[in-house]
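Posting this for the archive.
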Amino acid sequence: MTRDIVCYCVGFSLISIFSSVAVAGQVCDSSFLPRNASYTNKFYNEGTNVWLNPGRGFYHKLITSSNTTEFEAIQESILDCWRTQDGTTLLLRLYLLDDSVSGAQLTSDFLDRIRHDMATVHKAGWNVIVRFMYNTGQHSISNSKTSEPTVDIIAAHIEQLAVIFQGFEGVITSIQAGFLGRSGCWYEPSAAGGSFPPKTTYTQLLDALFKSVPTSLPIQVPKPEYKQEYLGPMSTSYLDVITNSDKLRVGFFRDCLPGSDINHQINAFPRLDPTSISNMSYLSIDTKFNIMGGRTCHPGDIRSGPDLCTDSVKLFQKIHMTYLDIEDPAETLKYYKQQNCYNNIRQRLGYQLFLHTVNLPTEAEAGGYMCFHVSLVNKGFATPARDVHVFLVLQLNSTVMYQVDLHVKGESVKLWQPGHVEIPLVTKSFQLVHDMPAGLYKVHLALSDPKWQNDSNYYILLGGEYRGKPTADPSTGLNFIGEVQIRPSSAHSSSTPASSATLPPGSMRPWSALATTRHLREWKEGYVTCDEVEVTKALLQYTYFNSSLALPCPDTNPHSSEAILQRFCHAQPASRWSPVTGVKVIDHCDEIAKFTPVAFFKSLLGVSVYDRGLNDGMAGVFFGCVKKNGILKSIKVGIQLCGFPFDVTLIHPGDVDLQSLYIVNTL
């Protein structure tokens, strides 16, 4: 069932943290470079790619019940659909504990269902925020009770859930404290004005969560006062980052929950005005280091000009917003789109990291030392919610690759603050292994989730272009930063750099390439890619496919060309298709992803429409271009022409006018 839930900086601290990252202006030692070698300095432009990165952005929500007859599992197909429709990869999963209000243990069947849910989220390459509750106040759900079990029973339930929290750490982005009050929002509305849980109750609940939730997973509470009562009144500081204080374990979530007066939203952001939020000075500092997300609950009032956009961006910057409900409410998002700030907000929620500068040597010797420098810029609202594992990948070919662990301290991610002109990530020297083959190595920067280094969906793609080309590879999760020619080992290789910023021995080791992801990791407004798995299966069958949305061929056979895009690319009837403006296939052969929907269009009264007059319609799935000596020879398309089964075909320039072949806007 899918239902809406209404609901000081210390002087020495930076020195300690920056011991693991670069100090601005630090220069690599050139004394150990091979003869005639030098350093290349790259400065990156921002670029326009919109990467789908883990643990941030707009989110969808799904609620289900622990009652066996009402439990609805997360469907991978739904997550895939949302990813392609609106570029979301974050889910709020709400679990209503119907069967346990009386004090019964969570059943093994229910725990297995949660595990299956989390595995589905992982398989889809998504992240999830979880919240548990004992009542919603909605009689349409089987449990209409307005109370929860005793806090001792709640603690026992949390202990049962610990194995799930630990097993899916990293797929789970954060855990909303939940359990108490209506919808787990720690508030119970009433005619008398409503009530909040007593301190003894929520303290015991937080004790239980601290015991069962891994330290890397943030726990979010509905109001800053709860954290202040539990961990002290002072906001999180850089000293807390150095000492890895418990304050780094608690962030905040906000939900829409009507009070006794339906117009009064408890825990909401009234009119999106930062001055109207209690404890704003505390919240604005604390969220620099701790995750904030939820809903604004804004009523969507109409104001002249871009005030709603201006207010929202100001607020999200101030409270460092990481995630926001994509139905928050529909009226608010409609205004964001009308005032042209929706895309800006979508890209800036959470972190938005760009490469700023890279310094690499042109050459190095096997067994010798290599120094490099990398800096970033964060144009988002917040830092990443979890630690990030940072390493280099040196790649000679598809089989010879090495990983270099950069030993960047986990807490340094809290220094990747928005607003800085440059964030020095790392300046280090490391010793290359003696037996590495000579050759030209590609150098990639990798930023992975510490728990999912074997899954490229949980790698951060960096914004930034160098000479017009994006650095990120969405299929592998790696960020290309340059090339280094490795010479064979020589006597010079044994010299040790003078710099103290040298990685410990053994930091470099062989690395195996990750499997390329099947999931879309770049969002392009207006078109989506086709389902790679289903298209591949269909091609292997060498047969015909139809769709109820497709017009038949002239001989009334239902297997027309447009049916392929409707079956496998989420396409609407072809009468609604339009070409993605300016994206002719022949002009962008090397940039278009495989499995992109393409079709031939013609101009009708100045409007581009799908050309059914060309061989009774030609639409299909793009697989690449065939060139010889830089000259286009043919375009490879999976297509089903009238009278012929679905198959991969080479379309040559002499066959048809390729100037009319475009990427299809199927939405």
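Residues 178 and 610 are 51 Å apart (CA to CA). The radius of gyration is 27 Å.
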